[in-house]
Every structure is written in structure tokens, then in C-alpha cells.
Design brief:
single chain, 190 residues, mainly alpha, two-stranded antiparallel ribbon, signal
Length: 190
């Protein structure tokens, strides 16, 4: 209708009268435009399981300490995401609430252990470096998954005051957060 009104304005009065008469003429069929709703591809739930799972500490592509392994890519991503103190503080807070991605938490712990070794603030017995080496040796992996309680128990043994067994069961991420705090994770970074 708007197009018709614009046409009438450009034709002038005489042309508009002629155009209006054509509009009602039986030989002029009205043009009807039909718009179809956009279609979406159907989601195939089976496709979710066809994707290859991400590489983990136990996969051969991981190669902790190598510049060309998946560990290097994951470490770069975690370092980037946790480059600011407020982000590191948020990770620790969420870990204490047991509401954190454990994969990233474990990577942050490994990188903190590595930093403590490299910058010389590990304990004299090298306990945090040893934890990093144990993680690299997949001692805290079981069937491609992180054994959260076992890792939390290893962190607890390295704390000045180990946590009780109830805390290990209730909040393994919270125990790892205590380890990160002990290593100065928020202040010192990765």
C-alpha cells in the first residue's frame, strides 16, 4: 500500500486518478507477497557425542612442558583468562564455593607450582614442584578425568596446616584454593 501511495504522489492528480482506476479494474490482479518464516536446521543430539573430547593431562598430545603440546595451548588460555588479579581472586572465591571449572583450576595450580619453582619461592623441600611433576605424570587422573579428592589430598599434605578429611570430601576445589592462596596466586599471578 505504501508503494501505491508513493506512486500516486509521483504521478500527479491525473495520473493518480488513472492508477486508482486500474487498481479496481478486473483485469489487474493484486500482487500478494507471502513471507515464510526462517527455517532452522534441526539439532541432532547424537552429533554432541561425535565430537572428539578435549585433550587432557593423560592424552599423548598433552606434553606438559613442551611448547608444541596441548598443555601449552591450555596454559596460554588460562594465563590469558587469569592475567588480572581480580580474575584470579574470583577463581579462588568460586573454588571455595565448589563452583569452578576443575580443569582450569588444576591448570592454575600447576602453573602456580611451576612459577614457585622458577622464581624460587617454593618450599625448601620442593613440595610444590613435586606436585607439578606428579600432575604431569597423571597421578591425579583416572579414566581421563581428574581425581579431585586425590589431588585435593595432595595439596592438603603440602599446606602448613592440612585440612581435615571432611573438607577433602565436601570441597576438593576449596582445598586447592587454599593451596593457590598459600602460593600467592592472586598477588603473584601465573
Amino acid at each position: 500500500m505504501l508503494r501505491f501511495a508513493c506512486t500516486l504522489l509521483t504521478l500527479g492528480a491525473a495520473g493518480a486518478a488513472r492508477a486508482a482506476s486500474l487498481l479496481h479494474h478486473p483485469s489487474v490482479a493484486p500482487v500478494i507477497r507471502v513471507r515464510h518464516a526462517p527455517t532452522m536446521e534441526m539439532y541432532d543430539p547424537a552429533a554432541f557425542f561425535e565430537e572428539e573430547p578435549p585433550k587432557t593431562w593423560a592424552s599423548p598430545e598433552w606434553r606438559w612442558g613442551s611448547a608444541d603440546g596441548e598443555a601449552h595451548n591450555a596454559a596460554m588460555r588460562v594465563r590469558d583468562e587469569l592475567s588480572k588479579p581480580h580474575r584470579r581472586s574470583a577463581l579462588v572465591t568460586y573454588a571455595k564455593m565448589n563452583a569452578v571449572d576443575f580443569f582450569d583450576l588444576k591448570m592454575a595450580l600447576a602453573l602456580s607450582c611451576q612459577r614457585a619453582r622458577n622464581l624460587g619461592y617454593d618450599e625448601a623441600d620442593g613440595r610444590w614442584e613435586a606436585l607439578m611433576e606428579e600432575m604431569a605424570a597423571c597421578e591425579y587422573e583416572s579414566e581421563g578425568m581428574i581425581d579431585q579428592r586425590k589431588l585435593a589430598a595432595a595439596v592438603s599434605q603440602r599446606l602448613p596446616t592440612p585440612v581435615d578429611d571432611a573438607a577433602l570430601v565436601e570441597s576438593p576445589a576449596g582445598v586447592i584454593a587454599q593451596g593457590l592462596e598459600h602460593l600467592g596466586f592472586v598477588e603473584k599471578g601465573l
